[in-house]
Amino acid sequence: MQKSLHLNADKCTGCLQCEMACSYEHEGIFNPVKSSIKVFSFHDEGRFVPYTCTQCDEAWCMTACPVDAITLDAATGAKVVNESTCVGCKVCTIACPFGTINYNSSTGKVTKCDLCGGDPQCVDACPTGAITYVEADATGFERMKKWAKATDTAGAV
Amino acid sequence: MAWTKTILRVNLTNGTIDKEPLNMEWAQDYLGQRGLATKYFTEAVDPNVDALSPENTMIFATGPLTGTMASTGARYSVICKSPLTGAMACSNSGGYFGAELKSAGYDMVIFEGKSPSPVYLSIENDNVELVPADDLWGKTVWEADEMLHKKHQDPALRVAAIGRSAENGCLYAAVVNDLHRAAGRSGVGTVMASKNLKAITVRGTKGVGNLFDAKRFMTSVAEEKKVLAENAVTGEGLPALGTQVLMNVINEVGALPTRNMSEVQFAGASKIGGEAMLVPRESDGKANLTTNAGCFGCTIACGRISTVDPTHFSVKDKPEYHKNSGGLEYEAAWAVGADTCVDDLDAATYVQFLCNEDGFDPISFGSTVAAAMELYEIGAIKPEETAIPLDFGSAEALVWCAEQVAQGTEFGKILGMGSKRMCEHYGHPDLSMTVKGQEFPAYDPRGIQGMGLAYATSNRGACHLRGYTVSSEVLGIPVKTDPLHTEGKADLVKAFQDATAAVDSAGLCIFTTFAWGMDNISPQVDAACEGNWSVEKLLEVGERIWNMERDYNIKAGITGEQDTLPKRLLKEAAKVGPAEGRVADLDKMLPEYYSVRGWTPDGVPTDETRSRLNLA
What's the pTM value of the predicted model, to 2 decimals? Predict the structure, then answer.
């Protein structure tokens, strides 16, 4: 079964452990700037919201790339940037509707989430379970279960 | 190597900025942050300088683990001579600013002299410049933060700034970063204002790397994060209730000071504690607490993000205060709540917002208001001096006082003197609940005896973060001791003081020590830093730092005579609760403490002690 990253902002505390884990895995350094997963703070609302690439099946970044530098990792479903092929044209960053593929000026290439080859480090690093790696076909089941309970009137009658 | 090995030296008088290599010999003896910056400070600054003169130096310092993945590796400290106490000031803060400074490539920034006109320091990796800040002067922290973000057009910019209270000479003004994290105590913000330095902006994109043994570090960090997650305090209590988990606990112990520390239990404690922050209110159905929040890298996440009830009298016509911001921590809730007998959670939260917005320490502020209320009660402060009666328990009076300090009005400036100077001003010095001029935090030493010794001997005046024996005496961490006993407390206080100095100097948060011992911290420091960082070495470094701070204070004229507590705590017995009939028995602990420390009976480190610790 294919797995997918599942993000739950309700549980996020804004600690940025995920960003550090990502940058350490890919660049060997603790540097949120180099992370493919980002936590956004909406200060006035008191919300921290993590966000990253959801690995579209029909990946517009991959389709748009003129040099075929973005390829499918069949094992994980991740769309992976091949740095040696990427020419840094940034067309993918325009094509992606979600902004989750970005240019890295220090390397001259684009970067995006590659699911760490099937062992996403952000998941391990997250202290609250705000980021999980679950069956792609069941990402909604936890929420569904909560609502299922709400529809169950047996207890109330 | 964890250290960036580069420091910035900014001479505000001349407008020069120099980069220099970190003194690695000192780093091996003092580790980083609090210890290392204090070493730089004491080597350079005459102990007798006026704290608000250009001759005072101010250092913003990170630790070797700041900006790494070690849990709570967010911390930085502001080091200078305190205008409130005349002693060493070292105020520690979290948020994101410290990690950003490290990621820009600096272990510390040293500010010397005084700028001829208002400036802020802009740091973008290697590009560092002093920028005119005339437009920022007179603005609140929140306004300055917004203006700087707009000017730099960079949402990721991190800002540390002072507010109007500092500019107006409030002696307990703070440096506030990330809108609501603060280097809060001892008036470090006041020193920043005296230098005409309004803010520091940082954008760091270099990251933190080059650890001594990165693989070992990552293994150790993962293991120790698990320890925090599985611990009842760091894994459950603090995330759920924040430090406010303590309000009801400390009240039950009979150590929650109230009415300017004249009593030890507060009837309204449950209305202003952590549990009360979770109860939905009638007006909008929301609880005071919106969410908990972590500082950079923190897997505990004790921070409170709160709103004030929009229908509450303090904010009902002020929609700008209806948004979320940093809410009440325990010490603040105690000072502005219990000590003033105000059991109004929304008033306390609004006052916390004002403390963040205009940068002043809620502990010193609340305690000063409590003293003002007592002065009012005995007729020393006259009704015509205040717009409303300063009665104990009056939320309106508390809110009014906070607005006066924020705005720097005439009475606000009196409150801004702090409790000691204000009580002297009105001819009642005994009503000031301070040690060495700094106001107490939230633990009554009549009910927690070890804290009396910790307060009396703290190098920055009354403080809970210099030796938190509450851990042992109330929570049983690492071992339970009886809070009403004095036996063994000298050793306990020394152990906590030394360990805390080491934890601070690593760049970690002291709250980790509810779950971590030095044997959890040592492997992380040892993997990150070159050199041997065993438990023994860390404790030796902690003891060295403690004695260095002590030496500086003695040279500044703050001697063993000031290792004492207000008469009220030494003479007036607790009237209720488990500590009923008890005073703070400081005299039973202090001589033993001096002996355990290797100090003379007057409290001076002996030559033998200095030599053992490699102190000149």
Answer: 0.97
